[in-house]
Amino acid sequence: MKLLNKRNIIILLILLAAAFPFVIQNQYYLHILTLAFIWTIAVYGLNLLAGYTGYLSLAHGGFFAIGAYALGLLTVKAGFSFWMAFLLAPLITMIIGLVVGLFALRTKEHFFAIYTLCVGYIIYLVIDKWESLTEGVRGLIGIPAPEAIGPISFTSPISQYYFALVVFLLVVLVIYRIIHSLTGRTFIAIRNSEELALSLGISTKKNKLLSFVLSTFFAGLAGAMYAGFIRFIGPEIAYTTITFDLLTYMIVGGIGTFAGPIVGTFLIVLLSQNLQFLQDYRMLIFGPLLTLLIIFSPRGIVGFILMQYANWKTKKKVITSKGHVKEG
C-alpha cells in the first residue's frame, strides 16, 4: 500500500490545517490564513466558470462585494441575525448573478470579458455613490461577528480560523462533486468546443448560465465571510483590482485544475505578506514571474506538475512494455 497516495495526502493536509493554531501560536498568521481560506473560496467560483466552462468573468470582485454588502446591510441596517444574513447573502448574490448572466451570456469570448468588466465597475459605482444605502466611502462599520452556537463562540481569532476552515473544506468538497459529476463534464465539453457540445444535444445556454450563477454564489459566500471576519467594508472591495487579484491566484495555481485555487491563493498571499517591506514595488517581482509562468506553463503550477506526472507515467509504461517484449 502506498503511503503517498492522494487520499492520505489530503488527510495529512487537513490534519496540519487543524493543528496549525496549536503549533504556531501567532494571531497574525491565523489572520492571514483565515483570509487565504476566504479568498480561495472566491477563486474556486471563478475557476468553475473560467477554468471549467471557458468564460472569463471580470465582474467576480463585484459579486464578492455584493455578498459582503448583503451581509453588512442585512445585519447593520435591517437588524437580521448574523446567521440569517450569512445564509441570505450568497443567495442574493446568486439572484443578481442570474439576472446579469441572462444578458452577459449572449456574448462570447473577449466580448463576454469586456461586458462583465463593465458590470463589475457598475457594481463598484453603485456601492460608492449610493450613500443612503451603502454609506459610500465611509463604509459599513459595526458588522457583527458570528453569534455563538451553543457553547461554541466565534469571537476569538482561533474560532474564526476554524469557522473559515470548515466552510472552506465544505466548498472544496462541493466543487469536487460538481466537476466530477455529469454537470462538470458538461462544463468541460462547453470549454473544449461549444459547437461540438451543441451537436451532442447539450443545452449550452442553460449550462453556461448554471456555471455563471454557481460562480457568483461562491463569490457571494466568500464576500459574506470576509465581511463577518473584517467587520468593516468599503467600496474598494468592489474595485476591479480585487477581480484581477483573484484572477492572478487562479492563473498562478492552475486554471482549470482542482488544486490550482488553493496553491495559487496560498502561495501569493503568503509571499505578499513576506514581501510587505517592498510595498508598491512588489509588482516588479510578481509581474515578470507571472509573465514567465504564463509563457512556459499556461496551466499554472498545478498544471505543470500534472503534465510532468503524465509524461512520467507515459515513459514508465513505454519502458515496461519494452521490457515485456524483450522477455517474450
UniProtKB/TrEMBL annotation:
Membrane-spanning intervals of the chain: 7-24, 30-49, 56-76, 82-104, 111-127, 161-179, 209-234, 246-271, 283-307
Keywords: Cell membrane, Membrane, Transmembrane, Transmembrane helix
Membrane-topology annotation of the record: Multi-pass membrane protein
Subcellular localization(s) per the UniProt record: Cell membrane
Signal peptide: none
UniProt entry tagged with the keyword Transmembrane helix: yes
The protein's name: Branched-chain amino acid transport system permease protein
